[in-house]
Amino acid sequence: MPTPHPPRPPYAPPGGDHGESDESLAARLRGRPEGEAADSVALLTARHWQSMYDYATVCLASSGRLAAMVAAAALHRVLNRVTAGEPAAALRPELLVAVRDTVRAWAEDDRITNALPGLQKPAGGRGMRAATTMTPENRQLAQRAFRSLPGPARCLLWHVEVEAEPISVPAGLLGMDVDIASGTLEQARDRFRQACVHAHQELAPSPDCRFYNRLLDVPIRRGGALLPDVREHLAECRHCRDAADQLGHFESGLGTLIAEAVLGWGARRYLDSRPGRTSSGHGGRAARRGRRRGGHGGRGRHGLLSRIPVPSRLHSLSLPDPVRSTRTLLTGLGAVSAGVLVSVLIAGPSSPGGEGADPTGASSSTGGGGVVPSVSPPGVAGLPTAAGQVRLRNVGSGLCLDTRGEPRDGSGLRLADCSSGWSQQWTFEDDGLLRSVADPGLCLDSHKDAGVVVLGTCAEEGDGRGDDVRYDLTPLGELLPRWDPQMALTPAGLDANADIVVKVRDRTTGQRWVTDPVGESATGSLSDSGPTTRAARHASLTEPLP
């Protein structure tokens, strides 16, 4: 039976102007006689009562006197804690959780249920009494992450994402300028996501789950595809499957994720009762916000992923209803995850006479020179006797290794159309360093970001990070990180903009690299552009371009 909803309140928080925050009102309750604090209680009640009453009708599956009693009792409990010193920056979710817990506590007391028969409805108190937990298992990470956020971040996320209210509402509750609140909201979204990723790793039941941590987050965030190894792992691991589902809600449905994580019981019905969600304006705002943050247009999570076929074994997965988006995720994430994202560059230009230089043989992971075969296998990266500037071209895709944005510590790596840009120029040194010509202080680091290949500070051998930025080259042109020679630098996909990852070595063409002189491409010559100012500063550290 549909839950009746009382009249909807206006958006603007009544009681006090926007300079009077919930916390400032709560401060008046502390250390003052009850009579003198009555005005603060009245103002806080005016701001939050209607939402509390709405959720009480959801939890009880009925409205009226009992819902008002529950809301009043919950308000009393929370304000007692606030008076004792508990912060009041994010009162709304705290009050709603108190409503839920009050209904459950009353329903578990037979004396109260006998006096209040309305608590015995199967869809209300009786059902809550029988439930083992209020928060579903597939929302535990988001619940933990949301609790870890500071009060202002929780307030902004709750009122904008869950209540679907304008930013001016939580700004008023926080006593914050609207422009500042908007910037803080964006930071809160990012911080919430990072906390979810951290919770997934912290609660991981196995080393494999921790290994795949960033391989879930990065492709979902960028609208890319999961590596086949990761999809296989998701088919077997409920913990990571739930994590992928929760991370997927950051692209669409963040309010649903937060409500289900914080409230659990009746979260969807509470969302349906929100005035902002019944108006057409909220959907438009959410869509505009998604375009601003993702910039993918029609290539968002659902649109891009749905074009990738699902392995037959994944079709047989029986997923619970709240994990419907996980199925979409498994359908579409196809190439960026089971090995760690990484880029690897490797070295030496062809000889001036146009003949390819002899390739270097594979070095052992412990060091030593490689054997130079007399005949180059197809698709081998030929290295010069001295470090020279080259592009690294992937054999499987024909695209070159490039950085994402300006080369700096922490910049990611990707595949891109080959060009003479400085961000595509590398040197492969005798000690295995793959060094950026654009900034010779930076090298390819396959271990810095949990497997995501990024630029990192070049490290000396033996300092603990030496093997993270050093690679051995096999006769087939594979780049093997010295921290694990069973892995190889691999593009997550064969299309432009694909991340570079560390993946289990499989000897396919996608894991093979060849070097191109900077003045040429695989399909013809390229006109060299003059060195940028930044590159010019390092000209003395590298050889001149061929």
Main attributes of the structure:
546 residues; mainly alpha; Trefoil (Acidic Fibroblast Growth Factor, subunit A); two-stranded antiparallel sheet; disordered C terminus
Brief digest:
This protein has helices at residues 22-27, 38-60, 65-83, 91-107, 110-115, 125-130, 140-148, 151-162, 168-174, 178-202, 207-211, 213-222, 228-236, 238-248, 254-262, 267-272, 275-278, 280-294, 301-305, 312-315, 324-332, 533-537; strands at 390-394, 400-403, 413-416, 426-428, 434-436, 442-449, 452-457, 471-473, 479-481, 487-491, 500-504, 513-517.
If you had to describe this structure to a student in words, what would you say it looks like?
- It contains 22 helices and twelve strands.
- It has 546 residues and is mainly alpha-helical.
- Among the domains are: 1-132, no CATH class; 390-523 and 530-541, Trefoil (Trefoil (Acidic Fibroblast Growth Factor, subunit A)), CATH 2.80.10.50.
- A hairpin with a 5-residue loop joins β8 and β9.
- It has a two-stranded antiparallel ribbon with strand order 1-12. Strands 2-3 form a two-stranded antiparallel sheet.
